[in-house]
C-alpha cells in the first residue's frame, strides 16, 4: 500500500488538498490517499482494507437503524429506531454522527454527503484510520468478532429471516425475535467463548470416572458411607443418562440465549436458529460496548495527529485547520456534570484525553508521572506505548492502568456515593492525593460491563417433570432488578422456554432471596 | 487496495420493511393519535404529513435492567467546582422514575413521537372507509387511454417532427463538420464582386487578381463542402414521442355548497370547512383527480374560489334552491355526467326561506341526486344550542324537509354537528364501509 503512495507524496506536498468546503469523489480519493500516507506510512497503523462509501443522510439513518451493518434482517424495532432518529434529525435536535464504520474486513466506512471537505478528511482520519486500526488490533475484537465473515453473515441473516417470514408468517417470526431481543444482553459469554460438553461427552466422562473409581477403590472405603448421586428434587438415585443430560446443561449458565437455543423443550429448529442469530450479533457488538472509551480515544487521537501532520506538510489551508479545530473541540467537549446538556462522561473526551496524556507521559514526564507510571514515563516511544494499550486493554482495564492524576485533575472528577439508606449523597473522593486512586478504581468499575449489568444465570431446569426453569439474579450491593421490566422480560423468556419460568433475586452478601418473579406458562 | 464507492444514487427506502412492521405494530395507537390530531388541523395542512405521539407500550423493548433507585452506587462525575471529600449533597427530588409498581401493561412512560408521511397518514386515516359508489369509476378505467409526452425519438410521422430539436442537432452537426455558413459565403462573394469592379484593393498590397483567384478557390471549396455537408441530414431529425397512458382511473368533482347568509357565523363556517376538508382528503385518496367547486349562496348562488368561499362575508336572505340551480348549471357546462363522479356536500345552518323548501327538496330529489354518486347534508349548529346529542333539538326547516329523501335515497345522508370533535365521527359514520346508513 505504501508503495503506491510514495510517488504521490511529492505531487501534493506544496498544494493544499482542497481550498473550499466543496468536494468531488476525486477529492475524497486524494484526501484519503494523503490521510493514509500519514496513518499507515508515518504512524504505522495496521488496517483492514477500507471500503469508503459516500452516502446521503437518509442512508445514514438507514445505517443507524441497522446498527451500521450494510444488511440487517427486518424487524419493527429497527423501524422504530429509524423513526426516532429521523424526527430528532429533522427537528434539528441532534445532528447525525459524522461517521460510522463497520468492524469488518474490508472495513466499511460511511461518509455523509452533507459534510464539507474538512469534515470528510477528519472522518477519514478518525474512522478509516483510527477505528480501523483499533478493530484490527484490539484483543477484545480479535477474540469475539470475526471481521472476515460478518458481512456475509449479515447477508445470510437477512435472507434467512426473510425466508422464515415467508414460511412461518410475519407474526411468528416477530414473536420469536421480540423475545430474543429482550434477552440479547444475556446472550454473550462474558469472559470468553467457552466450550460446552455435549451429552455424549458427558456420558463418556461419567463412565470414565466410574471406571477410575472402581479401579482405585480400596477395601477400607467400603465401610464409609458414601452419598449416592441423586437427581435434583427426587429421591431416586441418578441414572447415568439423566445425570449426563443434567451435566450437559452446564449449569449455572449465564448465556440465557444460548441455553434456550440448546435446551428449550418447545422451540422449532428455525426458532433456535433465530436465537442463534440474535446471540451471534449480540456477541459481535459486545467488544464495542466494552471498549467505547478506548475506541473513540484511539480514533480521536489519530484524527488529531493526522490532521496536524497534514497541516505541517502544507496540505491543509488555515481555514480548513480552524474548521477542523472547531469540529474537534466540539467532539471532545466535556460539559460539567451540572450542565443542562450533560450526559455524563463523554467517551470521546475521556479517551482522547487519556491517549494524549499517555503521549505526554512518554515524552515529557513529570515527577508525578515517574512515580505513577515508572514503566512508561519518559520512555520516548509514545506511539508504541499507545499501540500496546490499544491492543491489549478494555475500557475497564485501560482506565485502571493508565488514568493519571493529571487527567483526573483536568476533568475535575469526583466520586459521588449513593446509598439509599443515607438521605444525602456523599462526595467520596475528589481530585486530590487521597482521591486519585479511589476515583480511578470507581471509574474503572463504572466501565466494567460485568459490574454494571445484572448477573443472571440459569440455575436449574427440570427437563422431565414440570419443566420449570429457574433463574437467579445475583444482587450485588443491593441493586435489584426493575420489577416491571423484569416481569415483561420474563414473559418473553417463558415464550421461548414454553413452560413456567421463575427468577429469584438473591443477595450475594446475605445469600437471602430478596425477590421472586414468576411467569406461568401461557 | 482501498476503494471508494459513491452510493448516493442507490435506491432509497431500504428501511421500508422495518417501517411497515413498526407501523403495523403501533397501528391502533396511531389511529387514535391521528383522530386526536385532526381536531386541531387546518384545511391547508391536509396535504402534509403528521407528527404523532403514541404511548410506548406497544413498541417498548423490555430487558433485564437494574432498578435505578435501589442499591448502593458510586458515580464518577466530571466538572467538580466546590465539593471536597465528605461533603453531603441533598438528593435531587426524585423525578418520577419509571413506575416499578405499575401494572404490566399500562403505565406512564414517555410517549414515543415520530413522523408519518402523508401517504401513511391517509392510509391509516381512511383504512376502513369506502366510497359509496365506485362502480362508474371502474368502468371508466378500462375504456380510455390518452397520449402523453414521453421524450423524443429518431423516427416518426412528419406531423410529429420536433423542429427545435431537429434544428439543434442540425446546427451542432454543421458546426462540427465545418460547413461554411451562408453568411461567410456571401461575404466572400461580395468581396469578389468589389475586387472585380475595382472598388477595393487587397489590404496586403497584393495585386487584385491574386486575391481574386484565392477567393474563387475558397468559394469553390466552400461550395463543395456545403454540398457534402447538408443543411439537414436525416440523422438530425427528431420526433415527439407519445406514450399512451391509461386515462386517470377515475375523476371526481366535489361540490361544496354553503349557506353564507348572516345566520352562519365564523365558528359555524369553520365547522363546515372541516367537513369539506375531510371529504376532499377522502376523495383525493380514492380518485386520481378531484375537482372542487365552491358554491356559496344567500338568496343568490354563485361559484367562487376557495378563499372567498370561506372568508368573504355576504349578507342576504337564504334561498337554498339557488345553490342547486348553480350546481346544475356548472355540471352542465363543465362536468359531463358520463365522465365525472359527482359528489355533493352541503353545509347549512338549516335556515331556508319557507316558500323555497318544497322547491328545494324537489330539485334535490329529481335533478341533483340522480346525477350524484353521493350527497351529504351537514347541518351545523352553534355550540351549546343543541344538547350533547346533536339530534335531540328543535329541528330546522331543511332537516325536516330532507327527512323523506334521507329515508328513501341510499346515496343521501344527513347529520348535525356542533363541535369540531363531532366532525370526525360523523364523517366516519357517513362513509362507513359497506354502505350508507342514514
Summarize the structure.
The complex is a heterodimer of chains A (about 525) and B (about 450). By secondary structure, chain A is α/β, with parallel strands linked by helices. Helix content of chain A is about 55%, strand content about 10%.
Written account of the structure:
The complex is a heterodimer of chains A (522) and B (438). Chain A is an alpha/beta fold and 522 residues long. Chain A has 22 helices and nine strands. Among the domains of chain A are: 173 residues, no CATH class; 119 residues, no CATH class; 66 residues, no CATH class. Chain B is α/β, with parallel strands linked by helices and 438 residues long. Chain B folds into three domains: 49 residues, no CATH class; 83 residues, no CATH class; 180 residues, von Willebrand factor, type A domain (Rossmann fold, 3-Layer(aba) Sandwich), CATH 3.40.50. The longest helix of chain B has 21 residues. Chain B starts with a strand and ends in an 8-residue tail after the last helix. Chains A and B meet through helix 2, strand 1, helix 3, helix 4 and helix 8 of A and strand 1, helix 1, strand 3, strand 4 and strand 5 of B.
Helix content class of chain B: 25-40%
Oligomer: heterodimer
Radius of gyration of chain A: 27 Å
Q: What string, H for helix and E for strand, traces the elements of chain B in order?
A: EHHEEEEHHEHHHEEHEEHHEHEHHEH
Which structural class do you get from the secondary structure elements of chain A? alpha/beta
Number of E-type strands of chain B = 13
The largest contact between protein chains, plus residue counts on each side, is: A-B, 103 and 65 residues
The DSSP helix count of chain B reads: 14
Give the low-pLDDT segments of chain B. Answer: 95-109, 131-143, 386-392, 433-438
- In CATH terms, what is the architecture of the largest domain in chain B? 3-Layer(aba) Sandwich
Helix content range of chain A: 40-55%
Q: What gross morphology of chain A would you assign?
A: globular
For the biggest β-sheet of chain B, the strand order reads: 10-9-8-11-12-13
> How would you state the average pLDDT of chain B, rounded?
76
β-strand percent of chain A reads 5-15%
Radius of gyration of chain B: 37 Å
CATH homology group of the largest domain in chain B: von Willebrand factor, type A domain
Question: Can you list the strand order of the major beta sheet of chain A?
Answer: 6-7-8-9
Number of strands of chain A: 9
Q: How many domain units of chain B? A: 3
Q: Which whole number gives the mean pLDDT of chain A?
A: 85
Amino acid at each position: 500500500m505504501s508503495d503506491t503512495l510514495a510517488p504521490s507524496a511529492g505531487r501534493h506536498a506544496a498544494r493544499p488538498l482542497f481550498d473550499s468546503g466543496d468536494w468531488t469523489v476525486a477529492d475524497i480519493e486524494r484526501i484519503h490517499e494523503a490521510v493514509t500516507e500519514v496513518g499507515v506510512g508515518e504512524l504505522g497503523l495496521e488496517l483492514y482494507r477500507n471500503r469508503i462509501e459516500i452516502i446521503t443522510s437518509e442512508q445514514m439513518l438507514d445505517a443507524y437503524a441497522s446498527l451500521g451493518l450494510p444488511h440487517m434482517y427486518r424487524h419493527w424495532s429497527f423501524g422504530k429506531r429509524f423513526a426516532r432518529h429521523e424526527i430528532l434529525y429533522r427537528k434539528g435536535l441532534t445532528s447525525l454522527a459524522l461517521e460510522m464504520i463497520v468492524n469488518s474486513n474490508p472495513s466499511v466506512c460511511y461518509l455523509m454527503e452533507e459534510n464539507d471537505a474538512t469534515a470528510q478528511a477528519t472522518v477519514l482520519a478518525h474512522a478509516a484510520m483510527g477505528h480501523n486500526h483499533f478493530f484490527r488490533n484490539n484483543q477484545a475484537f480479535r477474540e469475539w468478532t470475526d471481521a472476515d465473515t460478518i458481512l456475509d453473515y449479515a447477508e445470510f441473516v437477512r435472507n434467512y429471516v426473510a425466508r422464515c417470514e415467508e414460511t412461518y408468517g410475519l407474526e411468528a417470526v416477530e414473536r420469536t425475535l421480540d423475545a430474543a431481543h429482550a434477552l440479547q444482553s444475556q446472550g454473550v459469554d462474558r469472559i470468553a467463548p467457552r466450550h460446552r460438553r455435549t451429552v455424549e461427552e458427558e456420558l463418556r466422562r461419567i463412565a470414565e470416572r466410574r471406571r477410575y473409581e472402581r479401579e482405585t477403590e480400596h477395601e477400607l472405603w467400603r465401610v464409609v458411607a458414601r452419598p449416592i448421586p441423586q437427581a435434583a428434587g427426587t429421591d431416586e438415585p441418578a441414572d447415568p443418562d439423566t445425570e449426563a443430560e443434567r451435566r450437559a446443561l452446564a449449569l449455572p449458565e449465564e448465556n440465557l440465549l444460548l441455553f434456550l437455543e440448546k435446551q428449550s423443550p418447545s422451540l422449532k429448529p428455525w426458532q433456535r436458529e433465530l436465537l442463534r442469530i440474535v446471540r451471534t450479533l449480540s456477541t459481535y457488538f459486545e467488544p464495542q460496548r466494552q471498549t467505547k472509551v478506548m475506541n473513540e480515544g484511539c480514533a480521536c487521537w489519530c484524527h488529531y495527529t493526522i490532521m496536524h501532520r497534514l497541516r505541517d506538510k502544507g496540505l491543509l489551508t488555515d481555514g480548513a485547520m480552524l474548521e477542523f479545530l472547531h469540529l474537534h473541540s466540539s467532539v471532545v467537549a466535556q460539559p460539567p456534570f451540572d450542565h443542562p446538556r450533560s450526559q455524563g462522561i463523554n467517551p470521546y473526551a475521556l479517551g482522547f484525553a487519556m491517549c494524549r496524556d499517555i503521549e505526554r507521559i512518554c515524552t515529557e514526564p513529570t515527577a508525578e508521572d515517574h512515580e505513577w507510571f515508572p514503566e512508561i514515563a519518559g520512555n520516548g516511544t509514545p506511539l508504541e506505548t499507545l499501540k500496546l494499550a490499544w491492543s491489549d486493554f478494555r475500557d475497564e482495564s485501560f482506565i485502571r492502568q493508565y488514568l493519571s492524576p493529571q487527567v483526573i485533575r483536568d476533568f475535575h472528577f469526583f466520586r459521588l456515593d449513593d446509598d439509599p439508606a443515607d438521605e444525602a449523597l456523599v462526595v467520596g473522593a475528589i481530585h486530590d492525593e487521597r482521591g486519585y486512586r479511589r476515583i480511578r478504581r470507581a471509574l474503572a468499575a463504572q466501565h466494567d460491563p460485568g459490574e454494571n449489568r445484572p448477573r443472571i444465570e440459569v440455575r436449574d431446569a427440570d427437563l422431565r417433570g414440570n419443566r420449570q426453569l429457574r433463574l437467579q439474579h445475583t444482587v450485588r450491593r443491593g441493586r435489584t432488578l426493575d420489577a416491571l421490566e423484569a416481569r415483561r422480560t420474563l414473559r418473553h423468556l417463558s415464550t421461548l422456554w414454553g413452560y413456567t419460568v421463575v427468577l429469584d433475586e438473591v443477595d450475594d452478601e446475605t445469600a437471602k432471596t430478596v425477590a421472586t418473579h414468576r411467569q406461568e406458562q401461557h | 487496495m482501498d476503494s471508494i464507492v459513491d452510493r448516493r444514487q442507490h435506491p432509497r427506502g431500504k428501511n421500508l420493511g422495518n417501517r411497515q412492521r413498526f407501523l403495523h405494530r403501533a397501528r391502533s395507537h396511531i389511529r387514535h393519535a391521528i383522530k386526536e390530531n385532526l381536531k386541531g388541523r387546518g384545511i391547508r395542512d391536509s396535504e402534509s404529513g403528521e407528527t404523532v405521539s403514541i404511548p410506548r407500550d406497544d413498541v417498548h423493548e423490555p430487558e433485564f435492567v437494574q432498578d435505578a433507585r435501589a442499591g448502593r452506587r458510586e458515580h464518577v462525575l466530571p466538572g467538580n467546582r466546590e465539593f471536597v471529600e465528605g461533603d453531603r449533597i441533598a438528593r435531587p427530588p426524585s423525578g418520577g422514575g419509571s413506575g416499578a409498581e405499575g401494572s404490566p401493561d399500562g403505565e406512564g412512560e414517555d410517549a414515543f413521537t415520530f413522523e408519518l408521511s402523508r401517504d401513511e397518514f391517509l392510509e391509516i386515516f381512511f383504512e376502513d372507509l369506502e366510497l359509496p359508489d365506485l362502480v362508474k369509476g371502474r368502468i371508466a378505467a378500462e375504456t380510455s387511454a390518452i397520449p402523453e409526452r414521453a421524450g423524443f425519438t429518431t423516427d416518426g410521422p412528419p406531423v410529429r417532427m420536433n423542429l427545435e430539436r431537429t434544428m439543434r442537432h442540425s446546427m451542432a452537426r454543421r458546426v462540427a463538420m465545418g460547413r461554411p455558413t451562408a453568411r461567410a459565403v456571401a461575404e466572400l462573394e461580395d468581396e469578389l464582386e468589389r475586387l472585380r469592379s475595382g472598388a477595393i484593393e487587397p489590404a496586403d498590397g497584393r495585386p487584385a487578381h491574386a486575391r481574386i483567384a484565392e477567393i474563387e478557390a475558397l468559394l469553390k471549396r466552400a461550395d463543395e463542402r456545403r454540398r457534402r455537408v447538408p443543411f439537414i441530414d436525416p440523422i438530425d431529425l427528431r420526433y415527439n414521442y407519445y406514450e399512451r397512458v391509461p386515462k386517470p382511473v377515475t375523476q371526481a368533482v366535489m361540490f361544496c355548497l354553503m349557506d353564507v347568509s348572516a345566520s352562519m357565523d365564523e365558528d359555524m363556517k369553520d365547522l363546515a370547512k372541516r367537513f369539506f376538508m375531510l371529504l376532499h382528503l377522502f376523495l383525493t385518496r380514492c380518485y386520481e383527480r378531484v375537482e372542487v367547486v365552491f358554491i356559496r349562496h344567500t338568496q343568490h348562488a354563485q361559484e367562487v374560489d376557495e378563499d372567498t368561499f370561506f372568508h368573504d362575508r355576504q349578507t342576504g336572505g337564504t334561498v337554498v334552491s339557488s345553490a342547486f340551480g348553480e350546481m346544475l348549471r356548472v355540471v352542465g357546462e363543465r362536468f359531463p355526467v358520463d365522465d365525472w363522479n359527482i359528489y355533493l356536500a352541503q353545509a347549512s345552518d338549516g335556515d331556508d326561506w319557507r316558500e323555497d323548501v318544497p322547491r328545494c327538496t324537489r330539485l334535490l330529489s329529481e335533478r341533483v341526486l340522480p346525477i350524484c354518486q353521493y350527497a351529504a347534508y351537514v347541518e351545523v349548529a352553534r355550540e351549546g344550542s343543541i344538547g350533547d346529542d346533536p339530534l335531540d333539538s328543535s329541528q330546522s326547516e331543511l332537516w325536516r324537509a330532507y327527512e323523506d329523501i334521507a329515508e328513501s335515497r341510499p346515496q343521501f345522508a344527513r347529520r348535525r354537528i356542533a363541535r369540531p370533535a363531532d366532525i370526525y365521527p360523523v364523517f366516519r359514520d357517513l362513509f362507513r364501509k359497506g354502505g350508507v346508513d342514514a
